[in-house]
Specification:
745 residues, mainly alpha, 3-stranded antiparallel sheet, two-stranded antiparallel ribbon, 37 helices, 62% helix, 4% strand, elongated
């Protein structure tokens, strides 16, 4: 501290002791130098040419160590003179707003050139008298800070408009008029501050290009073409365009420009991936519908997700699309399953680990589980040739399906990896599962599928007329590989029954060669339950059935046939007065039409009584069947008679109304119907509870049955609900608005 004070005192003493003529000399040199480099003087000249007097004055000041003070004075004077630049800016902006079209672009070129000219002219004293880099840097900072301060708000939109036009030029620097040589160097200088204007336009161009070239085009990869458009060099592409602007105004040319712009170009590439990813996530439902043709779009989406990590956006948007376009009552269950399968395959392409699949498809799985026909649709698809699930079943070598509750992680696996950070709780159970396993895992156990498989197989086997069931044998063998030998033992019994039935039927016909009836004989205990359908077969059909019974009794004396007429098929020819009709009909339909041999006119109720049928709708359906074929016609008072001699009727009388045949129950009981039938034994307990205790919620009924009803343990609330809904349809109970159940008195 003492040394600093001493040095300052000595300097002051030295200055005070300077000769008076030295001070006068410095004062004169200062006046000459400041007058020469006065910004207003410089602004009026294209080129400064210092006289010997000016050179001597500068040397004098330099020898006195006063050049820094001279530089500060010059920069201060420059700030005060900036109204000259401001007047140029205002004049050009006024002109820009007054003209249209190409004139706007030319006006902005003039403005940039005028700013560049001011920079160049006012920089002359610096390059003349301060050749080092530091004074030049100070000058440029002073100039630009003063310029940015005076530029009005309207300058930015004018510059952006200029840049928008410039983007349409393949090679902008080559397009600049020779009258404005300083325009582009000035633009580069200003872009240090206004580059967001240029980048915003380029981002906008990327978005426009992506949407115009990629929207709705899923069958070809688009990302590669976008990146080529972006990165094309030699004045081509966006990056080539930007490089072309900078390369002529940076030392080192093209290579230096690329190095300088590398971070900017990385942001452009990121934006291409981001915009394409956002576009594809909005189209993902349609991409899934178009699969497998849309695989190129999925490959692009996969790369975009890796680059931009917009996984949450994909999940939220796809779930919205599924909820709006798929998961509603108007969509057929088969269509939901088909799209679910495509969703599995598409998301496995986009995200092989399956995290996105787990996060997206949970609503589909819950919705499918709530639909009553889901299991049947899945099972029928598994054995339907040409169906994607059938192809999956026959070509996949995946492991056996196991119940989800039995699955556990194998931590001894050398390839074990922890779950990804964004994996949902149930992710581990679906990892590695194929389409069929994921469908089966919608439910808690695979047993519901096994039961439905048995029902469906029974229906298909009973439709076979020529004992040709090799296809079913092959299907069962494949299904065993999925569901296990033990699970499908019942199917083996059914197949063996059909083989034995062929031998029995052959034996019956050997004993009665002219018998026009073939029967399929099945063992009651190993087949699903059959719907009850009593029927007294009349006339020829009844006589043929009795003859078959007698022949069978001779062959199997210890057994008796119980006929299931709703499962049969009759090929018959009906001879009318004016024509004959040959058709395949069910035994009930055949029995109904044969009753018209007995009398000419019938009511549905009378037919029901004579045929001993329990369901009047079955009789009406049979009448509608023959009416639609023109064999019978309806009369007033619900009377029916044969429609013979049509040619003799009037046009009005001959008009036929096509009746819609109501859907009848399947001959083989569904899994749900079998479950309800098994639960019927608990109805008396439920009836007593609701009578004595009043309205009860299903949880209370379930817990009470668990405690009191023998054999109930192990039953689920879903099974109990199915029983309650069945007896509700019979008018025995009613569900309250709160969800509880009460007895109907």
């Amino acid at each position: 501290m003492e040394l600093d004070i001493l040095a300052a005192w000595q300097n002051t003493k030295r200055d005070l002791n300077k000769p008076t003529n030295r001070i006068s000399e410095l004062s004169e040199a200062w006046a000459i130098a400041t007058e020469f480099i006065d910004p207003r003087t410089v602004a009026a000249q294209e080129r400064l040419d210092p006289s010997p007097q000016v050179v001597n004055a500068i040397k004098c000041l330099e020898g006195a160590g006063m050049m820094n003070e001279l530089l500060d004075d010059y920069l201060d004077s420059l700030r005060k003179s900036f109204n000259l630049v401001e007047s140029q800016v205002v004049a050009h902006l006024d002109q820009f707003e007054a003209v249209d079209g190409e004139a706007k672009f030319t006006t902005m070129l003039g403005l940039l050139h005028s700013i560049g000219a001011a920079i160049k002219r006012w920089q002359q004293p610096i390059t003349l008298f301060w050749p080092t880099s530091a004074p030049l840097t100070s000058y440029r900072k002073t100039f630009l800070s003063s310029l940015y301060y005076l530029l009005p708000p309207r300058f930015a939109p004018a510059l952006q408009s200029f840049l928008r036009v410039l983007l349409s030029f393949p090679n902008p620097t080559a397009s600049a008029p020779p009258d404005y040589p300083l325009a582009f160097p000035t633009l580069i200088t200003l872009l240090n501050r206004y580059d967001p204007l240029l980048f915003a336009l380029i981002y906008e161009e990327i978005e426009t290009r992506t949407i115009e070239t990629c929207r709705g085009k899923y069958r070809e990869k688009q990302l590669e073409g976008l990146l080529k458009w972006l990165t094309g060099g030699g004045g081509e592409g966006v990056m080539g365009w930007v490089t072309g602007i900078y390369e002529g105004n940076l030392e080192g040319g093209n290579e230096e420009a690329k190095k300088f712009l590398k971070p900017t170009f990385s942001r452009f590439e990121y934006h291409v991936h981001k915009v394409l990813c956002q576009l594809r996530t909005t189209e993902l439902f349609d991409i899934i519908l178009d699969y497998p043709h849309s695989k190129p779009a999925l490959d692009d989406l996969k790369l975009c997700l890796v680059k931009t990590d917009q996984r949450s956006l994909l999940v939220s948007r796809l779930r919205q699309q599924l909820d709006l376009r798929l998961l509603h009552p108007g969509t057929d269950t088969k269509d939901i399953i088909t799209l679910y399968i495509s969703t599995i395959r598409c998301l496995r392409i986009v995200d092989p680990p399956g995290v996105l699949l787990s996060r997206v498809t949970d609503p589909i799985r819950r919705y499918l589980r709530a639909r009553k026909d889901t299991i049947r649709c899945i099972v029928s698809s598994l054995i339907e040739e040409g169906n994607p699930l059938f192809e999956e079943l026959t070509t996949s070598d995946a492991k056996l399906v196991s119940d989800s509750k039995d699955e556990a992680e194998n931590y001894t696996d050398q390839k074990w990896l922890p779950d990804p950070a964004d994996a949902p709780p149930e992710f581990r159970k679906s990892r590695g599962a194929d389409v069929i396993q994921l469908l089966v895992s919608i439910y808690d156990t695979k047993e519901v599928f096994v039961k439905e498989l048995q029902v469906l197989l029974a229906q298909r086997l009973l439709l076979i007329r020529d004992y040709s069931f090799e296809k079913e044998i092959k299907n069962v063998a494949v299904l065993k590989g999925r569901f296990g030998e033990q699970s499908l033992q019942g199917c083996d019994v059914m197949l063996k029954d059909l083989e034995d039935s062929r031998k029995i039927d052959q034996g019956v016909h050997d004993a009665a060669p002219n018998l026009p009836l073939h029967a399929t004989v099945v063992s009651r205990l190993f087949w699903p339950s059959f719907q009850s359908a009593p029927l007294k077969l009349p006339g020829q059909i009844g006589r043929v059935q009795s003859a078959y019974d007698r022949s069978f009794s001779k062959l199997k004396a210890d057994k008796k046939l119980k006929w299931l007429p709703q499962l049969g098929n009759v090929n018959m020819t009906i001879e009318l007065k004016d024509r004959s009709v040959t058709v395949d009909a069910t035994p009930v339909q055949a029995a109904v039409i044969e009753m018209f041999d007995k009398q000419n006119t019938w009511t549905p109720e009378a037919l029901q009584t004579d045929l001993k049928l329990s369901d009047l709708a079955t009789v009406r359906n049979a009448l509608f069947f023959w009416n639609n074929l023109g064999v019978v016609k309806s009369l007033p008072d619900d009377q029916w008679q044969l429609a013979e001699e049509q040619g003799q009727e009037t046009a009005e009388e001959s008009e036929q109304v096509a009746h819609v045949i109501e859907e009848e129950k399947e001959a083989v009981q569904s899994v749900e119907e079998q479950g309800v039938a098994q639960m019927r034994v608990f109805w008396q307990y439920i009836q007593g509870m609701l009578t004595n205790l009043g309205t009860l919620p299903i949880a209370r009924i379930h817990s009470t049955l668990n405690m009191l009803a023998p054999g109930y343990k192990g039953k689920t609330t879903d099974e109990l609900k199915a029983l309650l809904e069945a007896v509700e349809a019979e008018g025995l109970v009613r569900k309250t608005p709160s969800g509880s159940w009460k007895i109907v008195k």
